[in-house]
Amino acid sequence: MDLNAGTVIAGEPLSEVGRRIFELLLAVADGTSTAAEQWGHREFAIEPRGPKV
Question: Which DSSP letter does residue 52 get?
Fold first, then answer.
């Protein structure tokens, strides 16, 4: 995971965690590599939800 949101449990305001998530989202959209990309993972699959026919 690229961001530790568990700091909310330690008392960090949810609005601050939301701000960090948004800033990370913008950084990745601007070209910053994710942790998975830095580790060399290049293949991802999004599993469909619901019944499979």
Answer: -
